[in-house]
């Protein structure tokens, strides 16, 4: 059976990322989908070190390395990333920063990882907002095409953080098509 890994970068337990993850799980009939909230993982920020990750192994033994290791066992990786104040959540940057240790030792896996990675950004944008560009940076060292969908909440008539993105049928169609569900 096909396996899907869904990682939410939201600090909220029940919000648009959680609702979107449940929608994806329910539409993934021929797959086993695993939902992970990054706020439940123990990930230490990069600090108070001497760049040991660049010469061997990170000094922090947390969930960052094991998360990336677990992605080797799945066929699709879906990252749900909310946007706050014009940027991805700080949890996105925290995992990205801590991924250095993993990629220093697993460089040959990077293109395969990117090929499986589907990123969905959720939030409001204006024309000068670099939200999508931040995601595209992950793909800049590779020839793998990026899989990025930005769901602009205001475009769908949502103005409050309490509004549910999935109440809009167009959003459901876009997500279904983007993920080939």
From TrEMBL:
Coiled coil: none annotated. The keyword Flavoprotein applies. Gene3D superfamilies: 3.40.50.360. Residues 4-99 form the NADPH-dependent FMN reductase-like domain. InterPro entries: Flavoprotein-like_sf, FMN_Rdtase-like_dom, ISF_SsuE-like. It comes from the Bacteria. Keywords: Flavoprotein, FMN. This is NAD(P)H-dependent oxidoreductase.
């Amino acid at each position: 059976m096909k396996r899907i890994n869904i990682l939410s970068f939201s600090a909220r337990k029940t919000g648009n990322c959680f609702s979107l993850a449940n929608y994806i799980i329910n539409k993934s009939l021929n797959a086993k989908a695993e939902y992970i909230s990054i706020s439940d993982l123990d990930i230490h920020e990069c600090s108070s070190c001497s760049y040991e990750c660049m010469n061997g192994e990170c000094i922090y033994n947390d969930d960052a390395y094991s998360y990336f290791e677990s992605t080797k066992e799945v066929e699709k990786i879906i990252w749900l990333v909310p946007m706050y104040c014009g940027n991805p959540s700080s949890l996105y940057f925290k995992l990205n920063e801590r991924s250095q240790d993993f990629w220093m030792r697993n460089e040959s896996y990077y293109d395969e990882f990117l090929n499986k990675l589907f990123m969905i950004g959720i939030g409001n944008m204006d024309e000068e907002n670099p939200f999508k560009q931040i995601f595209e940076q992950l793909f800049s060292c590779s020839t793998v095409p990026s899989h990025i969908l930005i769901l602009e909440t205001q475009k769908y008539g949502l103005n409050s953080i309490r509004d549910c993105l999935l109440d809009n049928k167009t959003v459901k169609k876009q997500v279904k098509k983007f993920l080939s569900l």
